[in-house]
Amino acid sequence: MKILLRTLLSLALIVWLGGEILFPIVAQVTFTKLRPDTHTAGTIVGQVLRILHGMGLVSGVFILAVLALAPAWGIARPRAALAAMVLVLLMIACTVYSQFGIIPAMERDRLAAGGAIDTADAENSLTAHFNRLHDRSEQVEGAILLLGLATVVLVAWAETSKT
Hints:
It is a single chain. By secondary structure, the protein is mainly α. The radius of gyration is 19 Å and the shape is elongated. It has one domain. Helix content is 83%, strand content 0%. The protein has helices at residues 2-33, 38-69, 78-112, 125-160. The longest helix is centred in the C-terminal third of the chain and has 36 residues, at 125-160.
């Protein structure tokens, strides 16, 4: 049972972090292939990001559940599991912020600018706000990735330091 739970915990981390690592590559390829039509590329990348966030939230809740039960099941020490849980909670918070805060605000700006942000005036305050939100989105996704990598380290430490 312990091996199964460790495996499922690892798989949940792999799914989330793998998506976070793959996402910028998908975005770059999409914008490169659809260069003249950045609106369509942005629409595709936005949908992929929403899917990534859904996967992250499901994985995050699962990871929290396993980590919460890990000490009782003899998989990890309580303090080590708690430290990993704090990082996962931060990852979930960042994901929720991006999904339900940043993305809807970017969508409002895009619609208010006429539907395609790349055709709007670059000096337009909506375009500037959209670009700031886009930068913030990249920073949040980067934070999720770094927190996830730290979580992997803590989970490995939690499993090896149990007594």
